[in-house]
Target: LALA0S06e06590g1_1
Amino acid sequence: MSLSAATTKTLKNGVKIPIIGLGVYKAPKDETETIVYKALQQGYKHIDSAQFYGNEREVGLAIAKFLKDTPGKSRADVFYTTKLAPTNTTYEQAKSAIEESLQKVKEIGYVDLFLIHAPAAEKQQRLNMWKALQEYYEEGKIKAIGVSNYSVLLLKELLGWDGLKVEPAVNQFELNPWLVRPDLVEFCKAQNIIIEAFSPLTRGHRLEDPELLELIEKSYPGKTTAQILIRWSLQMGFVPLPKSSNEKRLLSNLQSLDFEISDADMEKLTHKDDYYVSNPNFDPIKKYFDKW
Model:
């Protein structure tokens, strides 16, 4: 499976999304612009931010600077994602928040993908947010819309809504070899919803996992456990969003594209009966599952 940072998947509306992205959650505000600029120089094509992260402006400035400084590059060469905070629960609040996010990145003209960051508590609140998002999508200010941390139950709720005009193109949620969420993955694939994997590196908690270290020693010398975890996500068909503020690790994470894990090793790595959430205090999906 030959992959590069320029390899894309196609969303249901025809928009192309790069298969790996840089997450900027908890990137220091005063360092975000530099981190994103360096990542783009290294070859990243996809940056994932959010209102909650507090660094949309810095990401937008970095993208604009990169495009200005790099001959032959255009806005179409960078994919920018942000997310609507779940506190914007009325239609008017959601519209105002979306407009604010667009203004923060006005130098780059538009948002490629706008997600609902996490499900609001009440059905009407969730639908209010989607109504606002799909209106901005129809106006062309956003190229694609989707959700994050949505369960099968909540996806069915949205897809069955009589006010639905634009179906979600993406669902972003936590995935790793010990958190495979088969029911949700199967449902998203059946609905042609692209799956993005946040925290694909388990927030660093499993980087010294003995199984991973043994696998590298036996079959993938020179590779890192982080590269194995990212490559696992890629081969599972997900769009992983690893984050790092370290320039060397940024590049190392991209090098997960230049090798392949064997089918047998993928099978060993995939723990279908585990449920390892790297931050147990934040798992909006779990409470909406019947299975767990």
Q: What stands out?
A: The CA atoms of residues 184 and 190 lie 10 Å apart. The chain has a mean pLDDT of 95. Residues 15-203+233-255 form a domain with the TIM Barrel fold (CATH 3.20.20.100).
